[in-house]
Amino acid sequence: MGYLLFSVTVFVSLLIVDYLARKRGWNRDRWGLAALTLGPLAIPLVYLVDAASALRKMMINALRP
């Protein structure tokens, strides 16, 4: 029963990460592999990478005169 629950959780996280990657225009294969490897932890990783990218863009724009 535990393996079935884990498999369903990984599959659902794969679908969610695939949707989020498609919405952001990112490489779906790479994020699908991350979802298969990390399972549900890949969902917060998408938001973390998105926030880091936005922060980096803000810092670069602030340094430009």
TrEMBL record:
Keywords on record: Membrane, Transmembrane, Transmembrane helix
Q: Locate the transmembrane regions by residue number.
A: 33-55
UniProt name for this protein: DUF5652 domain-containing protein
